[in-house]
Amino acid sequence: MFKRILFAHNATPAAERALLYLEHIARTESAEVVVLHVYEPPERYLATQGYELLLQQLEAVAQEVVNDAVEHLQRAGISALGIIHAGAPAKTILETAQDEKASLIVLGTRGPSNVTDILLGDVSTEVLRYARCPVFLVP
To answer: CATH topology for 4-138?
Structure first.
């Protein structure tokens, strides 16, 4: 059913928890996993000296996040590859899901803020609302 899973990894504890569920789903479905990390360059520093160095550092950290997840999945016997993109997270996740022909999107959420209110966050809400495939959210 799920042959290609997009894992939107934002380097949070919720994403680390989602990785465990993702591993189980990917193994059960014999699915390939695309690990995506989207980072947002801080445009307010665009005109400052050293902005290029800041972008290089952001990209290096993003690549490390992706590499760690890909290596974890590959050690578990799951076919995985990694992608990093700069941009607006929700829009980039949705575009990448389309480009990669994902049959499932997995991402972490902020989790419950109290007993009656669950805050999904702007990114997970937008992905859930506009995705063209099922979305699995992990608090």
So the answer is: Rossmann fold (3.40.50)
